[in-house]
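# nightly structure sweep
# worker-07 picked up a monomer target from the shared queue
# config: single-sequence mode, recycle default, output format = C-alpha coordinates
# input follows
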Amino acid sequence: VATVHDLSVFLWPECHPKARVQVMQKALPKMIKRAQVLLTDSAFTRAEVAAYFNWPLDKIIVTPLAAAGQFRPMTACEVASVLLPRGLNYGRYALFVGTLDPRKNIDLLLDVYERLPDRVRKYMPLVIAGFEGWKSEGTIARLKAGERAGWARYLHFIDEASLPALYAGARVFLYPSRYEGFGLPVLEAMASGVPVICANAASLPEVVGEAAVLIDVNDADALYEALLRALEDDQWCLQASERGLKQAALFSWDKTVTATLSAYQLASQ
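# output follows
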Protein backbone atom coordinates (compact mmCIF):
# COMPACT_ATOMS: atom_id res chain seq x y z
CA VAL A 1 0.00 0.00 0.00
CA ALA A 2 1.54 3.30 -1.08
CA THR A 3 0.46 6.92 -0.65
CA VAL A 4 0.57 9.50 -3.44
CA HIS A 5 0.00 13.01 -2.08
CA ASP A 6 0.05 14.80 -5.44
CA LEU A 7 1.55 14.66 -8.94
CA SER A 8 3.17 18.09 -8.93
CA VAL A 9 6.61 16.71 -9.84
CA PHE A 10 5.05 15.41 -13.08
CA LEU A 11 2.41 18.04 -13.83
CA TRP A 12 4.09 21.14 -12.32
CA PRO A 13 7.83 20.35 -12.56
CA GLU A 14 8.62 24.04 -12.93
CA CYS A 15 7.47 24.48 -9.34
CA HIS A 16 10.16 22.20 -7.90
CA PRO A 17 13.97 22.17 -7.83
CA LYS A 18 15.43 20.08 -10.68
CA ALA A 19 17.07 17.57 -8.36
CA ARG A 20 13.76 16.80 -6.63
CA VAL A 21 11.98 16.34 -9.94
CA GLN A 22 14.66 13.98 -11.24
CA VAL A 23 14.56 11.81 -8.12
CA MET A 24 10.78 11.71 -7.77
CA GLN A 25 10.07 11.09 -11.45
CA LYS A 26 12.17 7.93 -11.17
CA ALA A 27 11.16 6.78 -7.70
CA LEU A 28 7.38 7.31 -7.78
CA PRO A 29 6.61 5.11 -10.83
CA LYS A 30 8.72 2.32 -9.31
CA MET A 31 6.80 2.59 -6.03
CA ILE A 32 3.46 2.56 -7.79
CA LYS A 33 4.45 -0.45 -9.87
CA ARG A 34 5.12 -2.45 -6.68
CA ALA A 35 1.87 -1.45 -4.95
CA GLN A 36 -1.39 -3.39 -4.80
CA VAL A 37 -3.42 -0.43 -3.53
CA LEU A 38 -2.79 3.32 -3.59
CA LEU A 39 -3.90 5.99 -1.12
CA THR A 40 -4.52 9.63 -2.03
CA ASP A 41 -5.50 12.58 0.16
CA SER A 42 -8.29 13.74 -2.16
CA ALA A 43 -10.64 12.58 -4.88
CA PHE A 44 -8.92 15.11 -7.14
CA THR A 45 -5.55 13.38 -6.76
CA ARG A 46 -7.22 9.97 -7.07
CA ALA A 47 -8.54 10.92 -10.50
CA GLU A 48 -5.17 12.38 -11.55
CA VAL A 49 -3.24 9.29 -10.47
CA ALA A 50 -5.67 6.95 -12.24
CA ALA A 51 -5.41 8.93 -15.46
CA TYR A 52 -1.67 9.55 -15.40
CA PHE A 53 -0.58 6.02 -14.47
CA ASN A 54 -3.52 4.17 -16.02
CA TRP A 55 -4.43 2.74 -12.62
CA PRO A 56 -7.88 1.25 -11.84
CA LEU A 57 -9.94 3.63 -9.72
CA ASP A 58 -11.19 0.81 -7.51
CA LYS A 59 -7.60 0.24 -6.37
CA ILE A 60 -7.16 3.84 -5.22
CA ILE A 61 -8.63 4.76 -1.83
CA VAL A 62 -9.16 8.39 -0.74
CA THR A 63 -7.93 9.02 2.81
CA PRO A 64 -8.64 12.72 3.49
CA LEU A 65 -6.55 14.56 6.04
CA ALA A 66 -7.92 16.40 9.09
CA ALA A 67 -7.00 19.30 11.32
CA ALA A 68 -5.49 18.48 14.71
CA GLY A 69 -7.58 19.28 17.78
CA GLN A 70 -5.31 22.20 18.65
CA PHE A 71 -6.78 24.14 15.72
CA ARG A 72 -9.90 25.72 17.20
CA PRO A 73 -11.38 29.16 17.83
CA MET A 74 -9.55 31.03 20.58
CA THR A 75 -9.99 34.25 22.51
CA ALA A 76 -7.61 37.19 22.44
CA CYS A 77 -6.27 36.15 25.85
CA GLU A 78 -5.53 32.62 24.67
CA VAL A 79 -3.43 33.78 21.71
CA ALA A 80 -1.73 36.77 23.35
CA SER A 81 1.49 34.93 24.22
CA VAL A 82 2.02 34.09 20.54
CA LEU A 83 0.77 37.29 18.90
CA LEU A 84 2.09 40.06 21.15
CA PRO A 85 5.81 39.14 20.92
CA ARG A 86 5.41 39.22 17.14
CA GLY A 87 3.71 42.60 17.16
CA LEU A 88 0.35 41.22 15.98
CA ASN A 89 -3.13 42.21 17.13
CA TYR A 90 -5.99 39.76 17.56
CA GLY A 91 -8.37 39.80 14.58
CA ARG A 92 -6.30 42.42 12.78
CA TYR A 93 -4.28 40.64 10.12
CA ALA A 94 -4.74 38.51 7.02
CA LEU A 95 -2.76 35.27 7.11
CA PHE A 96 -1.02 32.92 4.70
CA VAL A 97 0.76 29.79 5.93
CA GLY A 98 2.96 27.75 3.62
CA THR A 99 6.33 27.48 1.92
CA LEU A 100 7.27 30.41 -0.27
CA ASP A 101 7.56 28.91 -3.75
CA PRO A 102 6.05 29.67 -7.18
CA ARG A 103 3.21 27.15 -6.80
CA LYS A 104 1.76 28.96 -3.78
CA ASN A 105 1.08 32.11 -5.84
CA ILE A 106 1.99 34.49 -3.02
CA ASP A 107 2.80 37.27 -5.46
CA LEU A 108 -0.94 37.52 -6.18
CA LEU A 109 -1.48 38.38 -2.51
CA LEU A 110 1.19 41.04 -2.73
CA ASP A 111 -0.33 42.45 -5.93
CA VAL A 112 -3.68 42.85 -4.17
CA TYR A 113 -2.28 44.24 -0.92
CA GLU A 114 -0.32 46.85 -2.85
CA ARG A 115 -3.66 48.07 -4.25
CA LEU A 116 -5.56 48.25 -0.95
CA PRO A 117 -6.24 51.65 0.62
CA ASP A 118 -3.34 52.55 2.89
CA ARG A 119 -5.55 52.89 5.98
CA VAL A 120 -6.95 49.37 5.47
CA ARG A 121 -3.72 47.52 4.77
CA LYS A 122 -1.85 49.13 7.66
CA TYR A 123 -4.68 48.37 10.10
CA MET A 124 -4.99 44.80 8.74
CA PRO A 125 -1.51 43.82 7.52
CA LEU A 126 -0.65 40.76 5.47
CA VAL A 127 1.18 38.13 7.54
CA ILE A 128 3.15 35.37 5.82
CA ALA A 129 4.45 32.35 7.78
CA GLY A 130 6.55 29.57 6.28
CA PHE A 131 9.92 28.41 4.98
CA GLU A 132 11.61 30.51 2.32
CA GLY A 133 11.38 27.63 -0.15
CA TRP A 134 13.02 28.18 -3.50
CA LYS A 135 12.79 30.81 -6.24
CA SER A 136 11.42 33.08 -3.53
CA GLU A 137 13.98 35.88 -3.68
CA GLY A 138 11.70 38.26 -5.57
CA THR A 139 8.74 37.48 -3.31
CA ILE A 140 10.80 38.05 -0.17
CA ALA A 141 12.10 41.35 -1.54
CA ARG A 142 8.50 42.48 -2.09
CA LEU A 143 7.55 41.33 1.41
CA LYS A 144 10.40 43.33 2.93
CA ALA A 145 9.27 46.39 1.00
CA GLY A 146 5.78 45.84 2.40
CA GLU A 147 7.23 45.56 5.90
CA ARG A 148 9.03 48.87 5.48
CA ALA A 149 5.77 50.42 4.28
CA GLY A 150 3.92 49.03 7.30
CA TRP A 151 1.46 46.64 5.64
CA ALA A 152 3.27 43.25 5.57
CA ARG A 153 5.01 40.89 8.00
CA TYR A 154 7.14 37.87 7.13
CA LEU A 155 7.42 35.59 10.17
CA HIS A 156 9.47 32.82 8.50
CA PHE A 157 8.96 29.34 10.00
CA ILE A 158 6.52 29.13 12.92
CA ASP A 159 6.85 26.24 15.37
CA GLU A 160 4.02 23.74 15.67
CA ALA A 161 3.07 24.84 19.19
CA SER A 162 2.53 28.47 18.10
CA LEU A 163 0.74 27.80 14.84
CA PRO A 164 -2.82 27.23 16.18
CA ALA A 165 -2.79 30.61 17.94
CA LEU A 166 -1.48 32.33 14.81
CA TYR A 167 -4.40 30.89 12.84
CA ALA A 168 -7.01 31.66 15.50
CA GLY A 169 -5.91 35.29 15.78
CA ALA A 170 -6.32 36.05 12.07
CA ARG A 171 -9.12 38.06 10.52
CA VAL A 172 -9.05 36.02 7.30
CA PHE A 173 -6.94 33.24 5.81
CA LEU A 174 -5.70 33.60 2.22
CA TYR A 175 -4.55 30.66 0.10
CA PRO A 176 -4.26 31.35 -3.64
CA SER A 177 -2.19 28.21 -4.38
CA ARG A 178 -2.19 27.02 -7.98
CA TYR A 179 -2.00 23.32 -7.14
CA GLU A 180 -2.55 21.18 -4.04
CA GLY A 181 -3.01 17.48 -3.42
CA PHE A 182 -5.19 18.37 -0.43
CA GLY A 183 -4.57 21.78 1.11
CA LEU A 184 -4.36 21.18 4.86
CA PRO A 185 -3.81 24.88 5.75
CA VAL A 186 -7.32 25.84 4.58
CA LEU A 187 -8.80 23.09 6.75
CA GLU A 188 -6.75 24.22 9.75
CA ALA A 189 -7.95 27.78 9.21
CA MET A 190 -11.61 26.72 9.02
CA ALA A 191 -11.22 24.60 12.16
CA SER A 192 -9.83 27.72 13.85
CA GLY A 193 -12.98 29.65 12.99
CA VAL A 194 -11.22 31.88 10.48
CA PRO A 195 -12.88 32.84 7.16
CA VAL A 196 -11.08 31.46 4.11
CA ILE A 197 -10.47 32.89 0.65
CA CYS A 198 -8.65 30.41 -1.57
CA ALA A 199 -8.00 29.41 -5.15
CA ASN A 200 -10.62 27.56 -7.15
CA ALA A 201 -7.96 25.06 -8.19
CA ALA A 202 -7.02 21.39 -7.84
CA SER A 203 -8.23 19.82 -4.56
CA LEU A 204 -9.07 23.04 -2.72
CA PRO A 205 -12.78 23.25 -3.71
CA GLU A 206 -13.16 19.67 -2.49
CA VAL A 207 -11.77 20.58 0.94
CA VAL A 208 -13.59 23.87 1.54
CA GLY A 209 -16.94 22.93 -0.02
CA GLU A 210 -19.23 25.95 0.09
CA ALA A 211 -17.57 27.39 3.20
CA ALA A 212 -14.90 29.53 1.48
CA VAL A 213 -14.72 32.18 -1.20
CA LEU A 214 -13.13 30.63 -4.30
CA ILE A 215 -11.22 32.80 -6.75
CA ASP A 216 -9.37 32.10 -9.98
CA VAL A 217 -5.62 31.83 -9.48
CA ASN A 218 -5.02 34.76 -11.85
CA ASP A 219 -7.96 36.98 -10.87
CA ALA A 220 -6.50 39.79 -8.81
CA ASP A 221 -9.71 41.83 -9.08
CA ALA A 222 -11.84 39.04 -7.57
CA LEU A 223 -9.35 38.54 -4.75
CA TYR A 224 -9.24 42.29 -4.10
CA GLU A 225 -13.03 42.50 -3.75
CA ALA A 226 -13.27 39.39 -1.55
CA LEU A 227 -10.40 40.52 0.67
CA LEU A 228 -11.76 44.04 1.12
CA ARG A 229 -15.12 42.62 2.20
CA ALA A 230 -13.41 40.27 4.65
CA LEU A 231 -11.38 43.10 6.17
CA GLU A 232 -14.31 45.50 6.54
CA ASP A 233 -17.51 43.43 6.96
CA ASP A 234 -17.85 41.95 10.47
CA GLN A 235 -21.15 40.22 9.73
CA TRP A 236 -19.75 38.48 6.65
CA CYS A 237 -16.78 37.26 8.71
CA LEU A 238 -19.06 35.83 11.38
CA GLN A 239 -21.12 33.90 8.83
CA ALA A 240 -18.01 32.68 7.00
CA SER A 241 -16.54 31.49 10.29
CA GLU A 242 -19.64 29.47 11.08
CA ARG A 243 -19.65 27.88 7.62
CA GLY A 244 -15.98 27.00 7.97
CA LEU A 245 -16.40 25.34 11.35
CA LYS A 246 -19.19 23.15 9.98
CA GLN A 247 -17.11 22.18 6.95
CA ALA A 248 -14.01 21.39 9.03
CA ALA A 249 -16.10 19.13 11.29
CA LEU A 250 -16.73 16.84 8.29
CA PHE A 251 -13.06 15.79 8.41
CA SER A 252 -11.56 13.69 11.19
CA TRP A 253 -8.54 11.44 11.72
CA ASP A 254 -10.94 8.65 12.71
CA LYS A 255 -12.33 8.75 9.17
CA THR A 256 -8.79 8.75 7.81
CA VAL A 257 -7.94 5.66 9.86
CA THR A 258 -11.08 3.84 8.73
CA ALA A 259 -10.34 4.54 5.06
CA THR A 260 -6.70 3.51 5.48
CA LEU A 261 -7.68 0.20 7.11
CA SER A 262 -10.05 -0.51 4.21
CA ALA A 263 -7.13 -0.05 1.82
CA TYR A 264 -5.02 -2.59 3.70
CA GLN A 265 -7.93 -5.02 3.73
CA LEU A 266 -8.28 -4.58 -0.02
CA ALA A 267 -4.56 -5.18 -0.54
CA SER A 268 -4.67 -8.40 1.48
CA GLN A 269 -7.45 -9.97 -0.59
